[in-house]
Amino acid sequence: MTSLRSGISRLTHLFIFALMIAAASGAAQAIAATSPWVVGHKAKVRLLAGRPGTGSSGESMAFVEFLLEPGWKTYWRTPGDAGGLPPSFDWSKSSNLAAAEVAFPAPQRFTDKSGSTIGYRDSLVLPVTLKPLRAGEPISLVVGLHYGICKDICVPVEAELSLDVPPSGDDALPIEAQQALESLPRAQGNLRPSDPVLVASKVVLDGAASKITIEAKFPGGDAGADVFLEAPDGLYLPPAERVGDGSDPVVFEAALGRDVDLTQLRGKTITVTLVGETGASTATFSAE
């Protein structure tokens, strides 16, 4: 009887072990494809690939994941008035790639004695929407990546990443990629109840009185509310600063001093990114 019980116990353990192996194998197949980490100074980067899931348009996506050592930060596409190196991407070595569109999650502002920088601390995942030249065929994705990181000093970093992206499949995205998609600023016509709302924008281009004024509501509370302005063609805009406390809507102003080319700015489309405690949004308006 003891021998029988021992045999049954061994068979039970083997069965459980087999189930664990099968589950692990299935989980591995469900995880998005990843490239090896490329390690640089105080940071490492890699590529992920997968699909956003049910309800998406079904396009292939890649994600550039940055992991920085504690206390280090990297930059948004517009790094701020204190300088910085925003990430840049060279996709020219890729095969079957017509276009790669990089999106940026909502950033935050860092302020010190040198001014303000805009970016991310410790980690970052950038979603990239891929358009193949030939639908139904895999994309051989190669990116030459240039970015800057900063703590007490600022350091430029380079890396080349590569990954084969299949033309179809249901690869599940890792949680970091899902969170990056969730934190993308949403357009004013596609807001969630917790996202910031642009109430008004005003541009004055009149010599010393020139300024941009933004009025916005932040449903999740305005304690950490912030806005970031961008102009096309590399035109410089200073950071917007909050005016007063406790106002509803919240008011921000950017004084357009002598370092702003008012002639070039006139008629251009300005993008504003609004970041609150519970969401982020984006909008555009004209500098008339």
Structure keywords:
6-stranded antiparallel beta sheet; 2 domains; 288 residues; Immunoglobulin-like; 3 helices; single chain; globular; mainly beta; 20 strands
Brief characterization of the structure:
The chain has helices at 2-30, 175-182, 262-265; strands at residues 33-34, 38-40, 43-50, 61-68, 73-75, 88-90, 99-102, 108-112, 115-121, 123-131, 139-150, 154-165, 186-187, 197-204, 211-217, 226-230, 241-243, 250-255, 269-275, 280-286. By secondary structure, it is mostly beta strands. A hairpin with a 2-residue loop joins strand 2 (38-40) and strand 3.
**What is the level 1 CATH name of the largest domain?**
Mainly Beta
Molecular shape? globular
The domain tally reads: 2
> Which architecture of the largest domain per CATH?
Sandwich
Largest sheet: 6 strands, antiparallel
Q: What portion of residues belong to β-strands?
A: 35-45%
Strands, total number = 20
Percent helix: 10-25%
Low-confidence stretches: 1-30
Overall pLDDT metric: 87
User: Helix and strand succession?
Assistant: HEEEEEEEEEEEEHEEEEEEHEE
* CATH topology title of the largest domain: Immunoglobulin-like
Chain-wise SSE layout:
Blueprint: H1 2-30, E1 33-34, E2 38-40, E3 43-50, E4 61-68, E5 73-75, E6 88-90, E7 99-102, E8 108-112, E9 115-121, E10 123-131, E11 139-150, E12 154-165, H2 175-182, E13 186-187, E14 197-204, E15 211-217, E16 226-230, E17 241-243, E18 250-255, H3 262-265, E19 269-275, E20 280-286
Parallel strand pairs: 13-20
Antiparallel strand pairs: 1-3, 2-3, 3-4, 4-10, 5-9, 5-11, 6-11, 7-10, 8-9, 11-12, 14-15, 15-18, 16-19, 17-18, 19-20
